[in-house]
Amino acid sequence: MNQERLKRILQGMKDRGVDEMIISDPVAIYYLLGRKIVPGERMLVLYLNIDGTSKLVINELFPQDGDVGVDLVWYNDIDDGVKILSDHMTKGKVIGIDKNWASHFLLRLQELHPELKYVNGSEIVDDVRQIKDEDEKQLMRESSKICDAVMEELIPWVVKGLTENELGAKVAELFAKHGVSEMSFDPITAYGRGGADPHHVTDDSKGKRGDSVVLDIGGFYKGYASDMTRTVFIGEASEKAREVYEIVKEANLRGIAAAKPGNRMCDVDLACRDYIESKGYGEYFTHRTGHSIGLEDHEVGDVSSVNEAIIRPGQCFSVEPGIYLLDEGIGVRVEDLVIITEDGCEVLNSVTKDLIIVEEE
């Protein structure tokens, strides 16, 4: 058990008046125990009590080697796993429930103990996970460094006659070359009109001269996600495409400048959005500016116009404004990850944001 992370969660429970916690999200369990357990439909619960007691309730199908760092409570497929969990609870007045816990498990616990108050406890864990410790920051740096290297190697491939799907497969191949076997999301490798459609599904289209090419890629390195976007052009870029690109680039830089402690998440979004709107393209920036990231590509804490949460040192999130002109086949997005420092932010991506024209072969 990571004692420092546990301490922060227990403090969060105390602050919110939660006596006991049921954590079932395998990612949250990995965050605390360093064990990747994928239980499928079977119940897996890390039980935490405000008094410091902790237990992992786990099916016998998932044997664990070595010291897990917490007491193990076993059950099998013919046992009432929820009843066994209940037997180890102290039945405090307020029980924090993981937002991902299957409803049939929760309903069974409520049936056993209707007198208890059940609340969404995930916000406690999510809040702690937003603030990366030094080990996590370093892993995010290393993960992003690999992503940078892959992007540098990927860009020349946009003129080699590959389809979007083939270019996406090339992303996986390049990550594997750098020791990363799992993508953090399905890569976006979209030419022209495809990149100008935010809902576009990668297909067998090929790029042509003058196309913008949106490259949105990321992978998991030692459990931590990378995510970045660059937009390049095949052979040439029209005057309109150049204008749009420079606007998105400047919006990205303004968002990064606003990413500092004391500002709100919405301030980062508005720094990007207000600039794009001032240039007459507001209606073509159709998504939020970013999302938190770490053990998952999208974690709690979005960079949107309605999130008024105060930015704190240790947070890590993306800044990714875009403009999408479907009728003209021009799509541009520029994305970097940032870690919030004591007085600003550290940008994790180093691939140039200067407009790139990839010459045709």
TrEMBL record:
TM ranges: none
SUPFAM superfamilies: Creatinase/aminopeptidase, Creatinase/prolidase N-terminal domain
Domain Peptidase M24 as annotated: residue spans: 139-342
InterPro entries to which the protein is assigned, alphabetical: Creatin/AminoP/Spt16_N (IPR029149), Creatinase/aminopeptidase-like (IPR036005), Creatinase_N (IPR000587), Pept_M24 (IPR000994), Peptidase_M24B (IPR050659)
Every Creatinase N-terminal domain range: 5-131
Top-rank lineage group of the source organism: Bacteria
Signal peptide: none
Protein name in UniProt: Peptidase, M24 family
